[in-house]
Amino acid sequence: MSIKWEGVMPAVTTQFTANDELDLELFKVNIKAQLDAGVHGIVLGGTLGEASTLTDDERRILTRETVAFVKGKVPVLMNIAEQTTKAAINLAKTAEEDGAKGLMMLPPMRYKASDAEVVEYFKAVANSTSLPIMIYNNPVDYKIEVTLDMFAELLKTCPNIQAVKESTRDTTNITRIKNRFGDRLAIMTGVDTLALESLILGADGWVAGLVDAFPAETVAIYELQKAGRIKEAIAIYRWFMPLLELDINPKLVQYIKLASAYTKIGSEYVRAPRLVLEGEERKTIIKIIEDGLKTRPTLPAYKKM
C-alpha cells in the first residue's frame, strides 16, 4: 500500500456541537471545502483535530465517515499520538480496519523517551501494520526530536515509514534530509509560516493548519510554486502571513476554528479543557481574521496546472 506524499494535506479540525458532541454535518462541510479546493489528502486526529480529547469510538466514527465521504478521491490518514506502544499498535489496527490509507505518528507522548526508545516505538508500530507512515517530527512542541540518524535506522528496517512531517522550524533540515535520503523519505512541511520557503527548498508537500479556514488560498500557494509561478505564490503568501501566524500559538485550535467560523466552513466550539476565546484576546484574533477577509486576494487559476 502506498501514498503519493505530495500536495496539501489538511490537518482537519474536529467539529463539535454546543452540547459537545461530534458535529458530523459541519465536519463534512469543511471536508467538502477541502476537496473542492483540490487538497491531496486528509489528516484526522492531529493537534487541530483535538485528538487527545477524543474517545476511541469518536476517532473510529470520524475515520469511517471521512472515508465514506471522500470516496477515494484522496487518501485519509489517522494520526497516532499515544502514551504506550500497545495503544499505538491498537490505533493503527483500528485505523486500517476503518479504511484509513495511512498514518501520521508522533513519538510517545508525555514520557521523554530516549532515542533508542523512540526508534523501537516507531518500529513496533510500523511492523504491526501495512499502512504507510509519516513521522511527525516536532521537537518544539513535543520535546522529542527524531534525528537523521534515527531516521536512518528506521528506514533500514521499516519500508512503510515513507515520509516526515518536518516541523523542527529549521528549514536547513530539508536540505539535510534530501542530501542524506534522497527520495526515500518524502518531506511534508508542517509549519504554516515556513511553508512556501520549505516547498521551494524541496519539501514535497504541506500538512497545513489555516487550510481549515482558507483551503483555496493554501492549495493555490502549493500549486503556483510547483508550476514555477513563484511571484504569484509569494503575493498570496504575504497576504496570508498574519493568518498563518495563528498556527504557531498554543491556542492554535481556538484561533483556527474561529477563522473557519468566519469563512463559514466550521464553528468555534472546542472541547474542554479548551475554551472559546474571550475578552481582548478574542478581539485581537477577530481583527486579524477580519483584516485578512477585507483584503482577501482574487486567486489566479491554479487547478490542474
Describe the structure.
This protein is an alpha/beta fold. It has a single domain (7-294), classed as Aldolase class I (TIM Barrel), CATH 3.20.20. Helix content is 46%, strand content 11%. The chain has twelve helices and eight strands. It has helices at residues 24-37, 56-70, 85-97, 115-126, 139-142, 148-157, 172-181, 195-201, 215-226, 230-244, 252-262, 279-294, and strands at 7-10, 42-44, 76-80, 102-105, 133-137, 161-166, 186-189, 205-208. The chain has an eight-stranded parallel sheet. α7 links the parallel β6 and β7 (186-189). The longest helix has 16 residues, at 279-294. The two termini are 27 Å apart. The mean pLDDT is 97. InterPro entries: Aldolase_TIM, DapA-like. Keywords: Lyase. This is Dihydrodipicolinate synthase family protein. It holds the Pfam family DHDPS. Belongs to the DapA family.
Write a brief structural summary.
This is Dihydrodipicolinate synthase family protein. By secondary structure, the protein is an alpha/beta fold.
